[in-house]
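// run 5 | inverse folding | seed 20
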């Protein structure tokens, strides 16, 4: 009975290890998530902090670019500014 219990627990541990190393959660494996959390909480070096920041920025930018959008681009020029530009263009002609 003891040997069977040992084999079952060993199989469960191996299965958990395989899951943690290969499954994707939010684009990263659980081990990657744990490693990043560990590096952030246990006195990370300046280079690691910069690398993590750049990786996060890259992932955010990639997600923003790859996301399809049906909305037209947002106007950042006010109506008054647009009218002033149109007046300047009209004077040049």
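// decoded
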């Amino acid at each position: 009975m003891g040997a069977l219990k040992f084999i079952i627990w060993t199989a469960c541990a191996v299965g958990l290890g395989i899951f943690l190393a290969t499954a994707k959660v939010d684009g990263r494996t659980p081990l990657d998530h744990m490693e990043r959390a560990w590096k952030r909480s246990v006195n990370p070096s300046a280079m690691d902090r910069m690398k993590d920041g750049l990786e996060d920025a890259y992932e955010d930018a990639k997600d923003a670019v790859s996301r399809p959008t049906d909305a037209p681009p947002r106007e950042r020029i006010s109506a008054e500014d647009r009218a002033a530009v149109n007046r300047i263009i009209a004077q040049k002609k």
